[in-house]
Every structure is written in C-alpha cells, then in structure tokens.
Design brief:
single chain, about 400 residues, 2 domains, five-stranded parallel sheet, about 55% helix
Amino acid sequence: MSVWSELTGQRAAIELFREAARASVDPAGGVAGSGQRMTHSWLVTGPPGSGRSNLAYAFATALIAGDPDGDETTRIQVEARSHPDLHVLATEGVIIKRDDVRDIVKRSHYAPSVGAHRVIIVEDADRMTEQTSNFLLKELEEPPERTVWILCAPSDADLIPTIRSRVRTVRLQVPSVADVAELLERRDGVDPVLAERAARESQSHIGMAHRLATSADARARREETLRLALGVRSASSAVATAARLLELAGDDAKAITALRDQEEREHALRSLGLAPGQAVPAALRGQIKALEDDQKRRATRSLRDGIDRILVDLASLFRDVLVVQLGADVPLVNRELGDELDRAAAAATPAATLATLDAIQIARTRIEGNVQPTLAIEAMLVAAIRRPTPIRGAA
C-alpha cells in the first residue's frame, strides 16, 4: 500500500513530494523530464484540516524508506513516531521556545541510523518565537547532507522572511467536501450520508470531519452550539449562552484529550517497567510528573482550540443566514437547520448579519490576544441578537 493512499484532495502536492523523494535517491539529484529537484528544507502550508501534517509524515516516510511510495515497516514506525531517523518538534503549549529546538538541532547532525535520510518535522512552526526562528535559521541554511527539515504552518506569512527565503514552500488547498467524504467512507467505513454531512459541517477539515463522523457526542455538541446562538434574544440570554458555549468547548476538549492522556500514561508506566496498578516508586515520580505537566499544557491548548472551533462553526451558521437573506445560489453548510435559518434570516437585515460575522472574527482575534474568552464571547453574542424586523408597508 502506498504511503499516500490515505491522503485526499492534494494531488499536485503528493506528486511533487513523490518526485522529490525519487530525486533524493537519484545520483544526479533529479528525475529526467520531471523538472523536480530535492531540497533539504521544506515548508508545508495550508489551512487547518488541509492535511499538512499528514503530508509531512508521508513525505518523511518516503524519504526515510528511500522509496517514493514508502514501505510498510517504515510507515508503521513513522506513524508511531518511533523511527530512529525521525524527530518531531511539537508543542502542547502556545509557543515553541528556543530550548525546545536546541536538542533536536543536535540530533539533526547525526547520520541516519537505518534509513536513507534523517527527517525533522516541525509541527505548528508558526508558534516559534522570533528568537527560536533565528536560532533555527542556520540549520535550514546548511543542513547535513542527508538531513531534511519539514516545517508545517498555516501560511508562509506566519514565519519570518529569512526562514521563508531558505525553504521550498508547498501550498495546500482546502480539500473538497466530496474528497473528504470519500476518505471517511474508504478509510473509516462511514456511511455515505453521514460522511457527506460530516465533511460539509467540518468545512472540509479532515480531523474534525473524522470526529463528527465517528462521535455522536461531538455531533450533538455542535448542534447544540448552533441552536443556542440562534436562540439569543437579549443581553441576559447572551451571558447565559456564553457560559454554556464555554462548557461545551470544555466538554469537547476533555473528550479529545482524555483517551490520549490515559494511553500516554499507560505507555509511560510500561516503558518504566511498572505493572498496571503498581505504585510509582519515588525515583520515577519525576518522570510521571513531567508527563502530567505536559498533559495539563495540552488541555489548556485543547480548550483554546475548542473555543475557536465553536467560533468557526458559528461563522458557518451566520454565513448560511446571509446566503438565505441574499437568495444566493450557494450550498449551505448547515442545511439540516433549514427552518431555523429561514427564521434567523427574517429576523435581521443582511447588514446586521455581516456585523455578526465581523463580531465573530473580532472575538477570535481577542481570544488569540488572551482576552478572557467569556467576555469576548458575550460581546459577540450581543451583536448576534436577532430581533424581528418590521416589514415596510405592513398594517
């Protein structure tokens, strides 16, 4: 099975990476007639859910295996993040600091252990501080011959210009709803109707589409979020709704992290030679404490991501309201809420709906800038209050 078979909607990028992987083992450094050449510093950009990390790991598999389609053994090790020639720089916090980079830079200078290349993947490279970016700069300029850096970020504009000038950028597009639905059917065995709805409601975000397709609780939380927003009629209801939305974001974050946290803890205990239920010796408690601290930082980030996801869903809701108001021939994201969308469209003008969409974006910006989420969401919901609009000429 090709390492690329579980990816979707990125045909041009996949072909480029396959050609580069083939070029990496060609003595001439290129593929006849392809125009492709291998470079040792890459940047993969694309919106959240476009699959940039998945593509980075698939490319890493091909490079390490020395085969443009990878091999099964390397794929399994890369997916488990256990291959000795793969190093991943990620953070459960808000930023990647210089200290986070220091150790992985040292490892980048080792020759590959068993593979054709040593690959370093930097997830969320946009979270690097400027000091960290400058520290990494020299490594991107002159990496060892068989070391490859792959950075991932939403946009090349999220990185400093000197980094951008030293990497080859591959820009991903948003997969189509049909592409994501087909992936859910093929990979996860999801019913076609549910797969299409999950792909549409996630707005082609592959990870979110998977969650909506496989978790009834996630679908229920999303639907409650939208109905709550449509039911805001006063400042007091805006305050109550904001509190409930934060509860839903918290529930969603816990659902995402709880299983992963438990699996990580069990794996850590096994690796330390401890049986299930066995007390942790004092000498090993520091390692378990470090793991718990990492999990707490991840929970904080997961909550922030959950709040932002709610705001993205609300933006899709009021985008649909605007489509109904304008009578535009554009597919609705939340078409199952047809009657509610019609009522919301009749309760305000298009200008008011545009103001609501602006308020949602302002709330996202404020929360990103560390404004208290409760205050930001309350202000947004006040702007979203729907009041019946008088009809001109009515008696």
